[in-house]
TrEMBL record:
InterPro entries: Class_I_gatase-like (IPR029062), CobQ/CobB/MinD/ParA_Nub-bd_dom (IPR002586), CobQ_GATase1 (IPR033949), CobQ_N (IPR047045), CobQ_synth (IPR004459), GATase_3 (IPR011698), P-loop_NTPase (IPR027417)
GO MF term list: ABC-type vitamin B12 transporter activity; catalytic activity
Organism: Methanospirillum stamsii
Gene3D superfamilies in UniProt: 3.40.50.880, P-loop containing nucleotide triphosphate hydrolases (3.40.50.300)
Membership in a protein family: Belongs to the CobB/CobQ family. CobQ subfamily.
Protein name from the UniProt record: Probable cobyric acid synthase
Active site: 325, 423
Organismal lineage: Archaea, Methanobacteriati, Methanobacteriota, Stenosarchaea group, Methanomicrobia
GO biological process, one term: cobalamin biosynthetic process
SUPFAM superfamilies linked to this entry: Class I glutamine amidotransferase-like (SSF52317), P-loop containing nucleoside triphosphate hydrolases (SSF52540)
Amino acid sequence: MSVMVLGTASHVGKSTIVAAICRILHRHDRVAAPFKSQNMSLNSWVTEDGGEIGIAQAMQAHAACLKPSIHMNPILLKPKGDQSSQIILLGKPYTDVHAKKYYQLTDNLLEIAVESAKTLLEQFGALVVEGAGGAAEVNLYDRDIANIGLARKLKFPIILVADIERGGVFAQVYGTISLLPDDIRPLVKGVIVNKFRGDPSLFSDGMKILDELTGVPTLGLIPMTDIDIPSEDSLSLSDKKNNNSPIRIAIIKFPRISNFTDYELLERYASVTYVNPGDSLKGYDAIILPGTKNTIEDLQEIQNSGTTEEIIQARAAHIPIVGICGGYQMLCEKIIDSGVESKKGEYKGIGLIPCTTTFSEYQKTTVQVTRRSSGYGPFLQKVSTVSGYEIHMGETDTSGMKEAFSDEGVVSEDGLLIGTYMHGLFTSPEVAGAFVSFLCERKGISWEMPEHLTDPYDALADHVEKHVKIEEIIKFFN
């Protein structure tokens, strides 16, 4: 057997519940693969064979102690900001499509997703399936391939997750179950109420009321937790809070920011702020230009807002600047697009790196990498070998520049300006710690690396097992 985890809305915690179930099953000597037919996110991961999937499914695979596979997320939508998205199909770029035309493709895409689910079932024997958004989007029932359409194909038992922090949890649960189609409603076998704050005993009557209203057992009430696992999408950016570190790092919050999970470990080591275009960059100890789905459009956004000038001024003031992927491309003198990512033309970059990036074909580099640091400059000399992954269109001509890493990236003569295509650079405790240590030395501040939870999925599983009738969920896999 398998189970399907649906939500009353987006951001209710489906991804973390799936990850927790995957780890709990593993600890009970059961194997189940995570699966999400269609994901929409700019946070992605590269599998060993070079396929691109949503980072949530990679995270869930790690929780299950399995290698991430393209079949765990066969359809990934990467929004471009103009009501269109790039479709990543079975790990590779398929096409860019407007939202209205996307639904013309869903029948075929659903069949592809179901085949991926069957592939995983044959390989692992069971699935923990994650839905998308809210389950009761009645206007999408005839074309929904992540919730209702998939549920009809798989017919797995359903656990519904609700977010009590939002308020209105009774309406969330009762309304969602009531609006489900007649053939899907009986599949709902349990409800989990997530993100509770305060004394759980205060909601004991509420659990009973939910049971009576819906006729579906409430399996648990999970308190809010700050366990360190990667964020799935940009909704998580609003949840971020600065710590009290004297080291302040600015990350430019591009409108189409991608893979900001690269910096979530830094958030534990320093005071990290996601700075909107147009906001001041003064007073920061370092500036990071992150990845983006649309390099040119986001470059124009920061140029029009004045942020480009602030970055140039920071460089003149010897503030360390790191550009990763799209941020690296922006730092170049110019970008030439043949019409692949944006409109055909030549675009002026920020100009801090004397290189040219060219988008010449609709082809994406997706690869896991391990590289040695060049050791050049005060930060890179603290770093030895680094691992990460590349996800990008376009190529950058770096002739004449010093390499930041073996066969990749650039570093300035003073070592304070770095450009690289390597995502995941700062997810390593050693690299993130070296960066913050370097910044502390510049300010004459002593710093010790905090304890790092090497495997947060055990902590997540402990947390969920403590508050959920886990034996009822394990029954679905007997």
